[in-house]
Amino acid sequence: MSVTFGQYGKYRALEIIPGLLSWGILSAAVISAFVVPTVAVVFIIVFDLYWMLRVFYFIIHVLVSYTQYRRSLKINWYELLTGLANWDKVYHLILLPTYKEDLPILEEAMESLLRAQYRKDRLIVVLGGEERDQKNFLRYKEDLEKRYKHQFAALLFTLHPSDLPGEIPGKGSNMRHMGLEVQKYFAGRPDIHPDDVVVSAFDVDTIAHPQYLACLAYMFRTVDKPHRSSYQPITLFSNNIWSATAPVRVAAFGTVFWLFSELVRPERMWTFSSHSMSWKMLTEVGFWEPDLVSEDSRIFMQGFLHYDGDYRVTPIFLPVSMDAVAGNTYWESLVALYKQQRRWAWGVEHFPYMLKQFKHHPKLPRKDKLRYIFNHLEGMFTWATAPFLIFVLGYLPFLTVDNAESALFVNSPYTLQFMMRGATLGVFVTGALSFFLLPMRPSRAPRWNWLLMLAQWALLPVTFIVFGALPALDAQTRFMLGKYLGFNVTKKIVTPRDT
User: Which of 138, 310, 321, 326 is most buried, by the most CB atoms less than 10 A from its CB?
Assistant: First the structure.
């Protein structure tokens, strides 16, 4: 279990570090621009050079990952799976936590599982409602049970009690309750061996590729130590991408390409959003922690710690598609996007957790500890500061110096311009690839929407700051000040899905 929020002492001091680091660098950049502008210019040049090289590095990994993605789409995973011994003993447990979702969203979740190329009598589907939404959930339960109960090995419904001690309302606490209830169900099913169960923790709007479950089962049967691994698919926010607002689309594709770049570096990966893992691992770590926001990534770290580093993420280069954030109005969609990004940035809560837990795991290799701490802190730092340093503060030293005639001040603008042109290569590459990831344009979307899909990338600098750095800095500041973030449920708007 994680340390109780609000606890002071050493753990509280660790919570301050990420925000202090980000604000310290941003403040130093502003102050030095007025006090020692030469130092500020040198720092900006070095940082922009680092960022340009990082963009090139990012592009290479995205292209490699995209190549594997295209290759994976062409494979008949179900055919490969059925050639393995005991393949049909693998049961898929699909957990679908829900809160205030409308019936069409839940129906589509059921229908997508029925489209899966896998034995339906090996699918155990669990819908987990909240007591705070009991009336709505029980009404839909009756309808769904009647229509889908006999189409799977089992269709279970759980109701998570509200206001349990040590919990915060959210996906993690709900799924923990779901896991405990399923554990009781398995106690009455001796025909299902726990070691043969693989769990997919999906957002309720997740539409998995028809071959995903077959591919997952194939990986589960063929990788080394399958119970010592989580399984991460490619997450596409494409269910409603044609009807989403331009800033939402840019942010959605930014997340997609970040995940692409991570999938070919599994040694540094955490799980994200909808993903899968073994039932055995879940029971051994005690399921999800009920008092945190970032349960999708924390469950990986729980396994990593439990097995003293002998735990990893296996990439699956098949997509699961989800809804991009939406609202009833343009403004509501932007507010929803900001809150979603801030919730994701709340992964900063893992930093003090790792430092504290690593001390209690002496068998965990020191190099692994250092790698995860550095990667996490560096990622959170650049998320919150890089857009400001590149697009805003990088110009400040040149505005504070009058008649600067030194070679440094004369040549620096050209140097920075050259590096930024190099970095924009990432925009062109990801912008081009985004067209290959789009679902077919629905008939209700006008043809000129293609032009919007192209023009939207001009919004990248603004989106990078407003829906990237700001929510990340917001999250770190709240964490630093002890103003802890609750779980914000992304609103689902019932509209025709893009197909």
Answer: 321
